[in-house]
Protein 1
Amino acid sequence: MALTPLRLLEHRVAQGLHDVFGPMPSLPEVLVQPTRDPRHGDYTCPAPMALARRLRRPPDELALRLAAVLDVTGICEAPEVVAPGFVNLRLRDDWLARRVGDLVGDEALGLTPAPRPATLVIDYSGPNVAKEMHVGHLRSTIIGDCLANVAERRGDTVERVSHLGDWGTQFGMLIAHLDEVAPGAGHGEPIAIGDVVTLYREASARFRADPAFAEVARRRVVDLQSGEPRATAAWRSLVELSAAENRAVYDLLGVKGLVERGESTYQPLLAGVVADLEAAGLVVVDDGAKCVFVDGFTNSEGDPLPLIVQKADGGYNYATTDLAALRARIEGGADRLAYVADAGQSQHFQMVFAVARMAGWIPAGVEVAHVAFGLVLGEGGQRLRTRAGHNVRLADLLGEAVERARAFVVERAAERQESVPDEVDEVARVVGVGAVKYADLSQNRNSNYVFSFDRMLSLKGNTAPYLQYAYARIRSILREAGWAGGPPEGTVAVSLDEPQERALALDLVTLGDVIERVAEEYLPNHLCAHLYDLAQAYHAFYERCPVLRVDEPLRSSRLALCQVTATTLRQGLALLGIEVLERI
């Protein structure tokens, strides 16, 4: 990615620190990186404050020395030192104007691949076979998809993987039940996913209550693992049925390129994983189970907590499969692994990562991260469920969002005494699904949030409809001006004479900084906040600065700001997985 304003200034600050203090040990990024600070200029540099204690010098003295050598000629106005020891930097208006001018008509918005692209495997969504996707899969799916989009945009090679739950005791249980109550299922007779879910619940109840059935189920697991034809055929039918149902949800969400790779994929590797852990001297047999104990992990009684890699009955579990998948992904060339899963799995992933490091399977320079997220809550602050206490089907949730969006579009047309658009169903889909996705992504993923259709479909506040409407409004202005396809005569000179023009330009040239931050911190809400700030800056600009009713060259300058804003909103929302409309 080309040097963004933040990276450009960071390099200048790093050089200034070197010029003042000479060669220093590698400094933490926080000491070098300026931060956006609209209250005191465009950026502020905290390095003098951070270094004051280390160097035992007053921070204002260090700030003055840094400001004296800081070379920002042509980029910023003269650095300003403010108490107690900050250096404030304000980008030059002519530099900003040139940057915006360069973006006019540029679909890439000046962004180029990162100098050291990564190979990222991002693991998200992960529904289970024989179960319908529910609201619990919403956050993993859309957060993971957004992060994959962002990584690809910055030039990384990305593999999108859904680690499908398609193996284990539950399938022996379900197959055993199907053998009795629906023997044709998976053997030529069709079956619906809803019926499978019901049968799964029945099988689960029988497994808990009937020891004889539980024994049959365990034997069917062995049959499945050994490739017995009838068990294999039933299992394969369940996998294919679930995959088709999942694709329908992914299509509605606009999720593309996600490869479902089941736990069954890694079954041939599990014995080798355990054997290698044993060879490394890491395995301890505890009550018949093979375990790895990791320093720092204890149970509620304070006793050491093991990661079980093989159960006493010889079976394997999620930890073994995750270790096998992790090792296979790294051996396949990945240097970043991100697992988008709920916060309740944090300890599991911490232990898996720790055991993999102990075994030497995570080389230096390879990053593994659990991208945790909180719960989706109902209006009462409890986990979002149906009245019967079940998880809300994701297809039902999205369907209701689309229906509510349709009613919203119809009602708005009536209020404006306009006819309902012919493409109302498409508008409803784009607005409804976009509203659900944005309401989630605009939250810090580490927090729980309350799901509210009324709030997320509002045209006011930080919502997808607000941003989609802003985009449509700008496109209307551009069409009226004859700029629908960009400036009619190529290069445009941009001027920033009004403060609202300058504020808008600053948001336009900093998209690259935001994308880098999202990629590094795995936090999509930074991008949402930036797009919302951009839309607000545009509205302030449009209210103060006439666009179509001014003479040239000012008219073209302001149309250029409109055009780059529309492109930025469209591209930014696309990274979130949200579509836009030319008209709403």
Protein 2
Amino acid sequence: MKKVLLLSMPFSSVRYPSAALSLLKSLLGREGVSCDVGYLNIFFQAYTGLPDVYEAIADLIMVGEWVFSDELFNEKWAQSDRRRIEALEAPLLPTRFRGKGFNEMMGDLRTMAGSFLKECMDKIKWENYHVIGFTSVFSQHVSSLALARRIKERWPEKIIAFGGANCEEEMGRALLRLFPFVDWVFNGEADLSLPQAILQWYAGKPPEGIPGVAYRHDGKIIEQDSGRSPEMDTLPYPDFDDYFMALKKWAPAYLQSVPVSLEFSRGCWWGKKSQCTFCGLNCKTLNFRRKSPRRAEDEIKTLTARYKVDKVILTDSIIDMSFFKTLLPALADWGGLEELFLEARANLNREQVRILRSAGVKSFQPGIESLDSEILKLMHKGTTLLQNVQFLKWAREFGVLPTWNLLYGFPGENAEAYQRMALLVPSIVHLCPPMDVSPVLLVRFSPLFEQSREWGLKNVKAHAGYRSFYPFDQEDLNALAHFFDYDLIKKENVPSYINPLKQQVAIWKESWKHPEPPFLTLDRQSGGKVVIYDSRSLGQSHRVELEGEMAKVYLSCDSIQPFDALVKQIDKKEVKNSSNDDQLRHHLDELIAQRLMLQEDAHYLSLAMRPERKMEVSEEW
């Protein structure tokens, strides 16, 4: 019986299954094609005996590629000065990873790579498989190629196929051109093209006429555009059997904590309107498509029951906003999820944040990226400073942990914006801090890349890190690369304005390592009084009492309020009264001076939280 083997190689994380391979297995099964999924990433993590080191590398960009480079290329490359690990350091390695200790660990992993690949070659029953497919996303490319070369050398008749983010457009063409042991490369979505290509090959024909499959024929590379998109509701449920079997065999400690990876939409509805300047996700397929709410709900319930898990991670680039009225309330009513992870924009209202939490969302990625409206506009984020802070406030209220970063280094950015952010941080240390302050990476398919000249970029070329694991010339590196270096036509002294912000964020993050992070909470008392408890200043705590109009104004600004709306709420009159306006402005200015409120243009936001559970307060208050 002809079978297909789909492989997930290092350095894909062990913490969740491959949504793509699990779905492709089901799609092939629907066509009568027997398929196994091999999680050799899990095998390698176990083989190294260094699970924490493995997962740390899996969370980094490109770094893991270096480990398998010697095994892909010849001995001459292994002796080359170009393959020094130091080329990966900036900006790919966070500071905590740099230094002798990390380099030694990477060297240890590199020495294990060859024996690991030999184990794979010796122990997998390759004779059972006629097509071997590799998914390649970020740091899986070199390890996949190293194993693929060995398979092809031993069994030239087997078909070696590649797909995934590293195979899109020019990268896929370069893959076929530079690595002759690769037979097929799938560009774009492979849901339709992979089963068609395999069935056609079983019938003795090349994958001619199938959109999305590039292949070699009579020594020439045949390209066929990108894969066609299926109707989302017609897709079968993904099959995660192989993942859970691999965990049970090689990493049983993960069994109690892993989620299933599900996909309910493709594309990006916001990117279709205004693609974020730095985002290269979705390649050419920004068109947003989704599964129906009922289908999504059934998929979650069926698969969590089948695999006895209560955690789900959605791989969608962005959640469909209609799910806040359909899927998420249904999941909340069901109550079967311990944890749901997803991505959404930060301009959610309070009720939407509450719905997220009630549906099982404990952490999620809101795409904040900056705390300055000028920079957010430069990014084309479509959000403002106040919206981002408002979201962070409500996230802490409802116990949702946002995972986010502050980005810098955008062409044309205003240094004063980062000074404003540095001054802002002490006022918002009671809100969840960013994971890091990072330079923006130039990513293929992003507007920054596609319109690099318009953005003032010159000398755009493959990131220097690629030189440490590929022995190719610059032109070929440029074709393979997903990340790029560049020079600015107009140079800026970035450290001079970013370092003060980094220092403030470091203090912010340190304050969240304490048993109880800083807080700024309010308590509504009888008679309309509002008491605010404030521990944002390190080692100091105090309370502020607001009464009358001040209290009313403060409560009104729990969500962002324009000044005119506040006038009507406070005055209860449609006729404008300039003296009342002056008094209101005075109250607002006083609240801003006490760092209890933020103002941007004529809009105001209160910073104190309304916790779901009343926070214990020191007796001295």
Protein 3
Amino acid sequence: MGNPEATSAIVAAHADLTSRLPFDDDADFAAAEKGFIGTLAEPRVLDADGEVVWDASTYDFFDGGAAPDTVNPSLWRQSKLVAKHGLFEVVPGLYQVRGLDLSVMSFIEGDTGVIVVDPLISKETATAAAALYREHRGDRPIVAVIHTHSHIDHFGGVQGIVTQPEVDAGDVAIIAPEGLVEHAVAENVYAGTAMGRRAGYMYGAALPRGTRGAVGAGLGQTTSTGEATLLAPTLEITTTGETHTIDGVEFEFQMAPGTEAPTEMHFYIPRYEALCMAENATHTLHNLLTLRGALVRDPNVWSRYLTEAIERFGGRAQVVFASHHWPTWGNAEIVEFLSLQRDLYGYLHDQTLRLLNQGLTGAEIAEVIQLPPALENAWHARGYYGSVSHNVKAIYQRYMGWFDGNPARLWPHPPAALAERYVEAIGGIDRVLEMARAAYDTGDFRWAATLLDHAVFVDASNGAVKALYADTLEQLGYGSENGTWRNFFLSGATELRGGNFGTPTVTNAPAILAQLSPEQVFDAIAITIDGPNAWDLDLAFDITISDLNRDFHVTLRNGVLVYVERVREPDTDAALHLSLEKERLIRLAGGDLQSDGLSVTGDFGVLERLFSVLSPGDPNFEIVLP
């Protein structure tokens, strides 16, 4: 079971933080409640099979009292704010549903219907959010959906509120920044298996909700587990300053690529004097490198786009809202909020570069960097989702890579081999365990975790090692201000005690895979080829994708799959020619060699030999164990 209580070291650290932060400032609580209209009568959202995909009531343990010892008081404050759920009026004509998924879904009323912004992760939660809006605002038709950027919590629920036939008929516009589909499907497919497994840790998917378990991820409480979908845009926004009138409402767009997402945009609505900042200005320090894994984001560009937003819209906006958290009202308050957010990312970027140019490594910079008081004491700049520590290391990685320049660290042993040597040098497992217990008892949980990490990689079956390691991670979780750090620590403890929980939420859903281009399908196959087993294969074949009228020549040599689009010669000498539609190509990539829809000319064994060397990702790979 582990230690159910926080140790005295954690309690003392919480007391110190409480004394340093402005907990008497409760303005956020008033803002998070402002405009509340109502919430779901039934807080559980079910899928078609009756399975729960979201249950807002699981966070009912939050109350008006002080934080328990097992939760960082700053994270407790943030989680109470984020757990509030229901329909809220931002200004008359602009509404948000909050607390029904990781993200926020917004409704902008036009002349005849409503424009929806960022319809959550799952069809089911998006449907529930739209129903809640209509319950209080009437059955207005959805005339457009805006996706602010390419992360799944901003497009996944779209088919829960509109259909492909409605889009095809021109009844609903799908509006997104240029390149959204390409980036959306690539992120969920190329490294999707590894990201999904780590996302289970990041969002605490397997943790019980409560004061000793999951209390939230800082940006939102957690991810819903319903069906993710995607509809291709009918209008792509490409240029800052571009304006479009949708159902009588004018939108002025600002492009912000390479910030929180590879493709992202902000927009201003003159009718409502409202500025949407997508996910680039929320009530937390965001990630520059998310713990689930992603490309490192650029804080320098991020801060510059915030400056541009202030310059373009700061004199006009009376409310700023985003696709997470609650809005900020008042022109002066908006400029201050955006300016502090801008300074946060700019400061981390500039100071990390200053210190790395003085010879400090990323880990060293993370220990010494200090935010200025104005940022340290701004609740919306606290590290609930991103953290100063891992963001600084991400900036270092962006500029300098994984190697810190010390030749002793250029070619270290991998974890298991390194662990064996450390444990032997220290004096064996028993001695390591003794040292770890001493570190635990003195509150040095970071050192205890390091020792026990080595020990468990030497002997993963050692019950005493695993038990103390789990207790140690639990204490680190109790102390974490960052919601995703807490989830990672507590998820590690959960697996040490109860075994691998796998990947609870899968993002490469059929509706997302359907948007893959042929090139992306070939790439997805290429990254699953077991190179050594394919060294001796020399394969070539042609593929016609009949519904797209496109032809590709594909080869496998030296363990590398290469594809080239070219006009097919009638008398090709390729040993195999396949003809199929794109949907069948996607199923083929998933391993379906037998079902209908595949026209084969030539040696089918070519394809069989290719598929014999595929090695798909493992959604159950170990994280805290070797």
Protein 4
Amino acid sequence: MFTNREQLVPLRSLLRFCKSRYVLRAFKKNSFRILPFILSLIFALVLGSQSLSSPPKLTEVLWDTYGVPHIYGKDNRSAFQAFGWAQMQSHGNLLLRLYGQARGRAAEYWGEKYLESDRWVLTMGVPERARSWYKGQNSTFRSYLDAFAEGINAYAKEHGEKIDDEVEVVLPVKGEDVLAHLHRVLHFTFVTSPDQVAQVSQEEPKAGSNGWAIAPSRSASGKAMLLANPHLPWSDLYLWYEAQITAPGIDAYGAALVGIPMLAIAFNDYLGWTHTVNTHDGWDAYELKLVDDGYRFDGKVRPFETETFSIKVKQKDGTLRTEPLVVKSSVHGPVVSNKGGKAVALRVVGLDRPGVLQQWWDMARAKNLTQFETALQRLQLPMFTVMYADRDGHIMHLFNGDVPVRQKGDFQYWEGIIPGDTSSTLWTKIHRYQDLPRVIDPPSGWLQNANDPPWTTTFPLAIKPDNYPPYMAPRGPMSFRAQSSAKMLAEDEKISFDEMVEYKHSTRMELADRILDDLIPAARKQGGELARRAADVLEAWDRQANADSKGAVLFASWVEEMDLDKAFSIPWSEDSPRTTPDGLADPKDAVAKLEAAAASVEKAYGALDVPWGNVFRLKYGNVDLPANGGVDKLGIFRVLRFAPASEGRFQPVHGDSYVAAIEFSQPVRAMALTSYGNATQPGSPHVGDQLQMFAKKQLRPVWRTRQDILAHLEERKEF
């Protein structure tokens, strides 16, 4: 009869009441009168408790007061359907627009501004490959994708008035649309993108993250802890959607990117993981030697494979014009550039690996490290670091990804244009799971990644670069943010949960700690009156980017004037990775640029010591608050990137997005925040509703038990 704990709670209270001396005394005197009362109370409590819980054959979504959907599926398929419904309620307009782009038909739906997007998607073969991937799913998982699409369509049918008219053209959605969107996001936004291809560089990814795993030996509670902290743009396909999915065999909490039907960062009662963008090279640009209508390869001339598309483009008057697109492909992949007699073809990893959703699903269902690694070993996820912790006390860092087996060259070589006239440069295999940089339970008791190469995940070094091919990952400088990350972990022998949350919000500028001891005396010695006043401000500054920090604006302005690659007299060294670079290479030039920065700041804001939060704002939706945090190169762990707003102010466009702090106690302790809120639909109360906590450097409690969810219930939907 009693199927869950929440039903037992009132019964335990009743038993305590019945055992009280008052009831026992009354029962002895009037048993025939009080017995019906006791029985009716039991039935009332049982029925009442059952009304709070799901009948076995019911699927429902419980939205809490922060707009987080807690999905209870009577079976897995129903859970996927409910998740599709929930995503539409929170992000319907965005989701449909993203699916339209993944079809390569966005220009047809919404006009000229989407033409380049369609060209990219069609050139990369996204829609066609998504159809192939869909057919390649096993029948069970294919039905889950169909169910997610059904949930999307059902919401739109029932609540069409809440969806913008212009995006309804995408309906109905199919299971293959889900895979097309996933494919576009993973392979042709994260692994590579039009901007990266144009620059032929993997050095400036659009995304970043922090990730920590702390072993029991370094935890104040003796329990392993995990910090998930992705940094992504605050718009478009990069938005996170926080959710809980409960169904037979799964009870996982975490976040998915909008439009993706599975949690990409998650935890359950046993374990959890997060991802960071790793220094992974999963694409290469090959220069072809053109001969007539073909290209030279291994001494022979080969013809291109050619496919022609007709892209429809919606005009302002509603009519459609047709734009031809001819896609030529070599043995390497599609040709993405053909200028001045030089053609460049693109090769991308993972195009034959359609199982990432099922891999994430099985990762979320795992109960121990062995089961978790069994899922990881499929290598369906084309890139991203995996940072892991569990209640058994294990922690792990995996440099995950589809890494090509290359015959020669280091990481830097493969970042450039590769000769495409010989099979000696054409990779056809990827490294096995066992080949990838990985560490489990290091002696240090902690692991970190702040988008630095895997070699600096902990100290002393647990993953040594000499043990791997030179193209696996770069051996470049450890960023100031990564140095700050490692410093906080290394200097605290016993880290409490609350301390981990506090460290996560650190806005201290590691760069300022490294350079001000040289800059301030140089400014006083070599500079004029303005430089000396600037030095006074910098000396009094707390070296943080909090809302009330005075001096942070001046320092950040000086950094913008400097070329940091040439600023230091002591370069970064593998032998001293956490204390270099250091020293001013040209003090005179540094002081001159400080004077220029000071003049600019004083002119714009009327003072050199303007508070950080006066200039940098948390402006999102209808919210406008003083910001804290700053850009990566300042060495701030709490990352925010800003764009100009108005009147010399700036607003966030990228950075701390979803945050989860987890301690694997029993029960699991967890706090989280989705910085911009858990919805984008017009009229939703959850657009920007968590920014107040963001401004206060706070996380909110994660409600996972049904009792807690019902205590903070905003809305309920039954299926």
